[in-house]
Amino acid sequence: MTFHLNTQADLESAVHALVKQDPRLQPILKLAGMPALRRRAPGYAGLAAIVCGQQLSTASAAAIWARLTVAFDPFHHDTLRRARTERLGRLGLSAAKIKTLKSLAREIAAKRLDLEVLANEDADAAHNTLTALHGIGPWTADVYLLFCLGHGDAWPAGDLAVQEAVKIGLGLKTRPTVKEMAPLAEPWRPLRGAAAHLWWTYYRALKKREGVIGATENPPPKANAVLNKISVAKRPSAKAKITAATMPGSKK
């Protein structure tokens, strides 16, 4: 049975269950505090908004999305499917994103894709369904599952912020790769989505502590140095996929 994070109470219940499942998360929760649930609209509009934000700053993505939703109100897949490419381009969309949005609209119109039903599928199967679509990579799929569908077991293994948080919180020597993140998250099934919220909140808490870890009584060697690097690092590349959109506390 799939657990859904539809309310703040759902998230808090899941986090408390996680701490009981894995006591290593107790100091993580103590430092981070309870995560705040952030949700977005599901369906085509929700996925389209995420696609629009790919590889863009929060401000740029918000501006483009605002122009789209004003130009196409109500925002519906059939409307975008029939929209002229030139018009979409004038609104700020790249050729690649226009192709992705139109491809998604065709899949939905043909009933080959039902985005809502993914909420009740196994997280890994839902992830694979999304990444099989044109223009939808792992990060986009995971953000949609987590924030639009509230999938309780979605796991953003490729998110750099979550990787850094796991590295420091679990005392690892190096930041885990995408492949390494999968077995690390096994103890948190079927609540990996709640774990992701907790790790994002922990990451943000670390950035605010200015070199003071405090996550464990015996922090891992060089942890302070790692934290300082996080604080002063330049903006991550688009490939790294850390944006304000991924974090539950984001205003976007």
Q: What is the level 1 CATH name of the largest domain?
A: Mainly Alpha
Domain count: 2
Counted by DSSP, the helix tally is 13
Structural class: mainly alpha
Element string (H = helix, E = strand) = HHHHHHHHHHHHH
Give me the CATH fold name of the largest domain: Endonuclease Iii, domain 2
- The amount of beta strand, in percent, is under 5%
User: What form results from the Cα inertia axes?
Assistant: elongated
Give the fraction of residues assigned to helices: 40-55%
Arithmetic mean of pLDDT = 85
Major sheet attributes: none
First and last CA, distance = 30 Å
Task: Show unreliable segments.
Answer: 212-252
Quick one: how many beta strands? Answer: 0
Short key terms for the protein model shown above:
0% strand, Endonuclease Iii, domain 2, 252 residues, Endonuclease III, domain 1, 2 domains, elongated, mainly alpha, 13 helices
